[in-house]
Prior knowledge:
Blueprint: H1 5-10, E1 29-36, E2 39-50, E3 53-60, E4 68-75, E5 81-89, E6 95-103, E7 106-110, E8 115-119, E9 125-126, H2 136-142, E10 146-150, E11 154-165, E12 168-176, E13 183-187, E14 193-196, E15 201-205, H3 212-233, E16 242-251, E17 256-266, E18 269-275, E19 285-288, E20 292-296, E21 298-303, H4 310-316, E22 319-324, H5 330-339, E23 347-357, E24 367-369, H6 372-385, E25 389-392, H7 398-410, E26 414-417, H8 425-431, E27 435-437, H9 439-443, H10 457-465, H11 474-485, E28 489-491, H12 494-502, H13 510-513, H14 521-529, H15 541-560, H16 575-587, H17 591-597, H18 600-605, E29 623-627, E30 640-645, E31 648-650, H19 652-658
Parallel strand pairs: 9-10, 16-19, 16-20, 21-22, 22-23, 23-24, 23-25, 25-26, 26-27, 27-28
Antiparallel strand pairs: 1-2, 1-15, 2-3, 3-4, 4-5, 5-6, 6-7, 7-8, 10-11, 11-12, 12-13, 13-14, 14-15, 16-17, 17-18, 20-29, 29-30, 30-31
Amino acid sequence: MLPGNAIFRMLLLIGFSTPVCTFAQQQDTIRYSLILTGNIKGEKKVIETSPGMFESWYQYNDRGRGDSLHTIYRQDSDGFPTYVHAIGKDYFKKPISEDFSLKDGVATWKNTAENESRPVTGKAFYTCLNGESGNMIKALKAGQHKIKLLPFGEATLEVVQQHKAGDQQLQLCRISGMYYTPEYIWADEKNVTFGYIGDWFSMIRKGYEPYVKELLAVQQKIERQHDSQLAKTIPEKVNGDILIRDVTLFDAEKATLLPHTDVLIGAGKIKAVSVGKPITAKAARIVEGRGQTLLPGFWDMHVHMGDGPEGIMHIAAGVTHTRDMGNDTSLLTLRKEIDNGELIGPHLEVISGLIDGAGPMAAPTGILIHNEEEGKKFVRMFADKGYDQIKLYSSIKPEWVKPLIAEAKKYHMRVCGHIPAFMTAAQAIEAGYNEVTHMNMLLLNFFGDTIDTRTPQRFAIPAQRAASLDLNSAPVKEFIALMKSRNIASDPTLVAFEPMLTGRDGVIEEKNKDIITHFPLQIQRGMRAGGSGLPVPPGMDTTYIQSFGVFLKLTKLLYDSGIRIVAGTDGTAGFDYQRELELYVKAGIPAEKVLQLATFGTAEYTGKSKELGSIKVGKTADMVLVAGDPVQHISNIRKTKLVIKNGVIYDPAKLYKAISVVPF
């Protein structure tokens, strides 16, 4: 699985799981192309049917998933919406709708999560959950670059760059107040949206697709100035030693807590660890650790790193190491920028070269191949570039798997990934897989080799059938024995499936219930809307929830059977990682063992336990200080108070404030 609608919609000013408005047009007809990693995946058309009245159609297809929306809306002379009616389907093809009207000073709106009415004084811009409304850029300029939002909040505008693309004179607009960090919108001279440009997803006017790379380069230069400034001002580089006093230390190698411990750090390394006896050496920076727990830095073993706030979100959560599971070659540059201190982010310890078969259901990133020999060539290319492993995806033909793995082994590269269509996990393991990605891919093993894992079947079948799977059956025992005999690891990404199987419209997802008030208001609104789950067939609501229970039970069974679990998310940086660890505890794995597998266990798995993974003398100073005791209450890992990466101190409160999040 690769980043889905949440990440792409983020670039469209859309919240965690449900849309926020896009920016409307003012010409008779404008068409846009929707581009995912260089491939056109949909289109949008906007028609001005009469002065101030618009009709739009939006259609996006991502391997059988994707939104579709038909919207009719009206805006006043300043671009503020006065009427909206939208109907369509969300990313997982569930029906959605939204209505809004402003009449006689009263705003009324209804959508999948809200049904409200309130008086409005002055101008206010309604932001849709499902649909689009008005022209925000025009409204912002009419409001002196600052406007009130409905239901709450405010947005501000700054025009940061002028640029010509072909015959179009464009302005790059930076809009703040909608998301963690400012959003960038390209508009023409009439303040009509020209496009949204991102490293994964872009929307641009039809006929101007060749300008995406050029506009992205201009935009990223502006974004980098902001990000680079944060990288200069937030990290604290101490000129001398750092002493953490009287802290409870989590010994990740033994999975035990050591109270009243002092830790001395210098030149990026751990110089001394003293349990029960204070360290008397002088230090340039002293951190009082009483009432807090010091753990090694966490490892998120399933990310797809990109631009934006991700790096900050990882570090603020204490994630100092990541494994990228599929990206474009710009990842190598990103890794260098982070390591050089130009950007804030975790160290990319492992990067994966993703290979998939070409076709309409192919992965949105990585290398697409047409035959076995092409695959071998690209394995060699990834090896030459310094990639650490190969990830195979769902459109790879089963007969290619074994020879591609053999080629990877020549270069000492591990192989992991999805299970290709019409193949089982057992067959992939026997062909040489080292690791199976995502818990649904393991569960599909028990439902035959006729499943097309390129399609949403890979989600729907486990949702509908896992609840009835007997985990004590012979096939399950035989499969786990196969995994153990081949030393196969599992990257469950439970946090990716929890909302899919248990999310319901108008209900806050479990992962967000205790933390929702920390987020920007517009993101809170999306969280309250819920609804990021799969479409549930009639009579199967309980089955879907029970099936997720089997996801948890199988994770615990794998752990109890000696199968290595590596904690990864494939989701929202930082916050989803913390939920992933909470879910392991919910599954029944003891909290101290969860913390161990998330730190020392992963360092051991990646072959880096001599330098990383535990707080021992001589190792790299990567650690996170949290309030309270996460062994007693795993959710205390959210209460990060200090993060140290390579001996550099990061204050999570400053990091969170930089992305409009209330510190924990």
